[in-house]
Fold each of these.
Amino acid sequence: MFEKVLIANRGEIALRIHRACRELGIQTVAVHSTADSDAMHVRLADESVCIGPPPASGSYLNVPAILSAATITNADAIHPGYGFLSENADFAAMVVEHGFTFIGPTPEHLRLMGDKIVAKKMAKELGIPVVPGSDGPISDVAAASAVADSCGYPVLIKAAAGGGGKGMRVAATKAALPEAFRLARAEAKANFGSDQVYVEKYLGHPRHIEFQVLGDNHGNVVHLGERDCSLQRSHQKVLEEAPSPALNAEQRKTMGETVCAALRKLGYVNAGTVEFLFQDGEFYFIEMNTRLQVEHPVTEMTYGLDIVREQIRIAAGAPLLLRQENIVVNGCAIECRINAENPETFRPAPGLITDYHPPGGIGVRVDSALYSGYRVPPYYDSLVSKLIVHGATRNECLMRLRRALEEYVIGGIETTIPLHRKLTGAPDFINGNYDIHWLERFVGLKP
Ligand code: ADP
């Protein structure tokens, strides 16, 4: 096992990884920008190294500075968390070249799944059902139009290098296609440095359902069921739950087995998530995330295990102790992403935390790096806390969530807690009756 792990991230996820390391008896090294000197992940780590100025480009994305920090602290391994460098194949390769272990998949698999066109092609070849659309990149409107005619409108133009819901444009009709195509390419180029796009059928009322998998270096791959992440705004997840209220045990088993068989063939190692749209009883692959996900705690709460610990054990070469037949879902868990944002306009609202009182009690977990007196910096993602509740039934979970949201006090800044409180009273949410478009209608962003 490793003696020391460097955590190449910040915020709640840096803390989450620190906790897993601690419980394994591993020392931690925090890295931080000058804006994060007082951050909780820095305070709790055994050692810390300042790696640059506030903008992420100079610090959390600064590969030479991170590798130097690992060298001078004599770390054995690097955990990238999510976001930042977590899916950067070149970074993972450099980590290995410098003699450290990368806690994640191989650079080859990061590269493969990082290109959504290649990933989709691979998924199809491995027997996973995909959304109908182009087989490769589309470089002009005429080609896009031909694909759209064959799969039918509306269609979605998506960036091959896309992520975070960016670089995606819907064309409802043939007339709207040229403009949507132009905008998607421009957005892809601006956000990801590549204007490569592809076209797929735009599904009208799907749910977003994703399967969590773990693979080791000994050929074992298991799945930990699904998460339902259909509650989204601007293609970004707001609240997630496990298991999905829309899936039965048979569907879970069949799809879970399909995913595991595919990843076993691929030789996939470490944690990963295979994302699907689910509509009218059919699954359609959209992408694979080759890292720990923000919403991993709902799986941990329902399956009673520590995914980060498993990631570390796998990276250290240990075989998975889990066997698929022993992995059983227990009750229901819901996660609310709490952002430092105005709950109606979603404008970022960084600033000083004047009061902080997280909820507690049975079945309540708070993953957050907040504390009273902490100043939320304006430079990074606005996610400041994840409230996760677990209950024996979905109803118990909902009652507990309402209670926990009532207790939660984050004073001094605006947060999305009021949105979550409102959500827990919505009949459609209570009944599990929602698709990926429902939340935008609920908050008045869509008619
Ligand atoms: P990203 O990598 O930016 O997160 P994804 O491919 O995972 O992009 O898609 C993000 C979200 O966009 C999905 O959860 C879903 O809400 C929506 N979406 C993606 N593809 C389609 C599609 N073909 N039809 C309808 N909605 C889609």
Amino acid sequence: MKAFDATRLYFDRAADQIELTDNMRRLLLTPKREVQVQIPIEMDNGELRTFIGYRVQHDNSRGPMKGGLRYHHEVDLDEVRSLAALMTWKTAVVNLPYGGAKGGIAIDPRTLSRRELERITRKFVDNIHDLFGPDTDIPAPDMGTNSDVMAWIMNQYEKYHGFSPACVTGKPVELYGLPGREEATGRGVGIFVVKLLSRLGRKPQNTRVAIQGFGNVGSHAAKFLQDAECKIVAISDASGDYYNKNGLDLSDMLKHAQAHQNSLAGYRGADRLFKSGDLLELDVDLLIPAALGGVLTMENAAKVKAPIIVEAANAPTDPGADEVFNDRGIVVLPDILANAGGVTASYFEWVQNRQHYSWGLNRVRQELDKALGDAFESVWQLAQERKVTLRTAAYMLGIGRVGRATVLGGIT
Ligand code: NAD
């Protein structure tokens, strides 16, 4: 199933619950604007290559559009469209004054030099600088991009528009960034896990965790959960799966990754599971997909043993697998809530850039914990009241807020 069709299916389940009309469904689902641009650059060896970049601006009825920029070789318009819609519901679930957008460039950043990445990023900004900005659409990091890329975006944007640190978030702390932004998505995942375990009457000490992905989100979620006394027994990244039934040595793994371009390749301090996909089917208490989309499918859903799944990645679960999980009583905390810590911290960064004021790490963490705690309680209560899954409840909350803002603002 295509990525946008999957998002649509989740949307429709919630729209049925709130009895949204067909015309409103069409209005809320249709993106405001989709842009595809050519990015020709000269490679380090003098060769000319052309890449394709996308930005989809899905909805702005609640405020400027907000969403990450992904660098991955499989990026296409359908995926970006689907992720942009997810951002609209996500910002609404956490009640941020934002709409949703997403961008991406179809490149494999691991095969490019830093200078090539910088040239691609700057050329992309040259192409779309008049379509984004502090009051219209604010990019942020996603898979394959980081604070360096955000700094290049800001610098290139300012060549056209003057001083505008609020045009992008996730910047380096030394350059109008926010202390705590980098950890925020993973920290948020951890906060939600602790709240969910408590609601389900489980203890962190008795929770064995498997995490797919050891990048920004996966590594920070792992750190937070280990501090919360969960036992991290398995972690994977693009180089393979690493397992220790007694708990992995996380600080050793982090040290290895930092010394090897954020990769666990060559790490010898754990067992290997050998078959790709094994981690998703491990006998654990909690599974956290924190890498790619579409990894939980009809093929492996019946083999998943974890009774709880927390979707740190965007769109890791196909709708067919989601139904299998519901039938089997597996509790799924959906992406539009589970990974909302990143956009919430991005909101704090944007507010401070606009006020020329900066908070310390403690205040950022306090505000983040409060915002995410409130969002979790709203979704949990709605799910209980309406006897629906946490995913449907989160979509009901998000779609309801966007729908009301759309009507209040006047449609035609
Ligand atoms: P990242 O690029 O920092 O890390 C991605 C990780 O996934 C790396 O460890 C990589 O090795 C691993 N990976 C890639 N292919 C894999 C495979 N086949 N099997 C196992 N691991 C694999 O990306 P990130 O920022 O951590 O983002 C991860 C997910 O979280 C994405 O779905 C992203 O959309 C979502 N997300 C990120 C943020 C954020 O603030 N960074 C916010 C919200 C959602």
